[in-house]
Design goal:
9-stranded antiparallel β-sheet; about 500 residues; 5-stranded mixed β-sheet; alpha+beta; 21 strands
């Protein structure tokens, strides 16, 4: 599927799309309708009569695990673990030790044929082109999601940038506040790829405008790639090719020199001019609160391209886990595990609970090998991948604990942790500025909890022995229980 419309047809065939003709206002109403659909496990919503716009509004696209599976060609989400293995090999490549080793690796290497994007001469969004004074973003059904939001917000636009030092183009999702006919505030945090591209550009060419593309309504593989933990050396277009099993089709913008997903519904082309910034927010966020205001660069859109009857793809952020980012994070969690295990093979599983905003708490199980091993794991999580810069809490357990089961995690904390001995507090570290629980904006502390069994050297006391049934007795009773369930009751 190389465009959004093919994906929507696919969803319709699987009863995963609801088309709505009743009027729905992008001002508050579309958020509540999408939230209701997500909470009830409902379908994606294509709202044909969005108040104030001729464009349909698409919501709740990735609000259920089933639709993410359909975006991956109806493969189960466990296949994302396989993609994680491939990403791990790309991040830490291993040279084959022999010809046999190379041949054994061929199925993995064969996937790389889908990596290189394919340049195309035309794109569907070239059906309508407006520029200069003709650009008016207010004609799109851009949402205002929550009652105290500062304004309307582009929520699912794919932002394409390129820095000075990286040959790859970065594709990511940053929210964009509409502040004028052709102006949006680009809210990207310093550790994100787009912000780093912009910083390197400013350092090299402080007087030049920074080129940016924003694609709205892209194909499902590119949408998923934009939120996945792709290594810095790999473009999201390349990863989308792996997800899709087919090379990404991209169209080169002559104005910006950047590539856009050729199947997108809407394309915005423009520049961030030196010194052009504005105060952004507040907006309702995944924390469940309205975030603080911050100053960010402003994108001026010089050209807008659209398909006939272009579909505007929107979303919202709300209190986790009841928003699309939480559903996506749950699905993409499995990609992280192989990447971490490539360098830290003792890691058994890794979990980011969606209730903790999908990044503020990490729970890790390990095969413990020496005293202090849990603390090394905490430091590894905080330092190895940029995605965990803002993770406040890391809980480390033994391999006998299922980190995706809060009941087991709480049991491990309550029975294996001494608060003074087993906590590691790190102060004055980078923290998401949205986290107003910290004493200073953008700077705060991190806490690690060692919920593993303690080894000699970590504790002088004899450690307790976990209760476990006798395996032979358990096997006999399992057989008896199964036979009892099959025995019909007397009449």
């Amino acid at each position: 599927m190389h465009d959004l419309r093919a994906f929507l047809q696919h969803l319709s065939r699987h009863q995963q799309l609801m088309e709505i003709d009743a009027p729905v206002d992008p001002e508050l109403e579309s958020t509540i309708l999408s939230l209701r659909a997500l909470r009830e496990g409902g379908p994606a919503l294509l709202m044909h009569n969005a108040t104030g716009s001729v464009h349909p509004l698409l919501g709740n696209l990735f609000g259920h695990r089933r639709r993410i599976e359909l975006a991956l060609g109806d493969r189960p989400l466990t296949s994302l673990r396989e993609l994680g293995e491939l990403l791990a090999s790309l991040k830490e490549p291993r040279w084959p030790a022999s010809l046999r080793d190379a041949l054994d690796s061929w199925p993995e290497l064969a996937q790389l044929a889908n990596v290189a994007p394919k340049q195309v001469d035309d794109a569907a969004f070239n059906e309508q082109v407006v520029e200069g004074d003709g650009v008016d973003l207010s004609t799109l059904p851009i949402q205002r999601c929550w009652p105290e939001d500062a304004g309307r917000l582009i929520t699912f636009g794919l932002v394409v940038t390129r820095g000075v030092h990286q040959p790859r183009q970065n594709v990511a999702i940053y929210r964009q506040q509409l502040i004028g006919r052709n102006r949006v505030i680009m809210r990207w945090l310093p550790h994100r790829g787009g912000a780093q591209d912009y910083a390197s550009w400013q350092h090299a060419w402080p007087d030049r405008p920074f080129p940016v593309l924003v694609a709205i309504g892209a194909d499902p593989a590119t949408l998923l790639a934009a939120v996945a933990p792709v290594p810095d050396t790999l473009s999201e277009y390349e990863f989308a090719g792996l997800l899709r099993g087919s090379r990404s089709r991209v169209w080169r913008s002559e104005l910006t020199g950047l590539d856009a997903p050729a199947g997108a519904e809407i394309l915005l082309e423009g520049f961030i001019h030196p010194g052009d910034t504005a105060l952004e927010g507040p907006f309702g966020d995944h924390t469940g609160y309205y975030n603080a205001q911050g100053t960010f660069p402003v994108l001026t859109v010089e050209r807008m391209r659209m398909r006939h009857g272009a579909i505007y793809h929107g979303s919202y952020m709300g209190r986790s886990p009841h928003d699309e980012p939480s559903v996506l994070s749950m699905a993409l969690n499995d990609i992280f595990v192989p990447i971490l295990r490539k360098v830290f093979p003792e890691i058994v599983d890794f979990y980011l609970p969606p209730e903790a905003c999908s990044y503020r708490i990490a729970v890790v199980s390990i095969r413990k090998q020496y005293p202090g091993h849990a603390r090394r794991t905490m430091m590894a999580v905080w330092s190895y991948l940029r995605q965990f810069t803002y993770t406040k809490f890391v809980i480390v357990t033994d391999e006998d604990v299922d980190v995706r089961d809060w009941g087991q995690v709480i049991w491990a904390i309550s029975t294996r942790v001494d608060p003074a001995r087993d906590s590691m507090l790190v102060e004055n570290t980078p923290i998401d500025y949205l986290d107003f629980a910290t004493p200073v904006s953008g700077l705060g502390s991190k806490l690690g909890l060692d919920a593993t069994r303690k080894w000699p050297g970590e504790s002088a006391r004899e450690w307790g022995r976990p209760i476990a049934p006798d395996p032979a007795v358990e096997k006999r009773m399992d057989a008896l229980w199964s036979s009892l369930l099959r025995t019909p009751e007397p009449e």
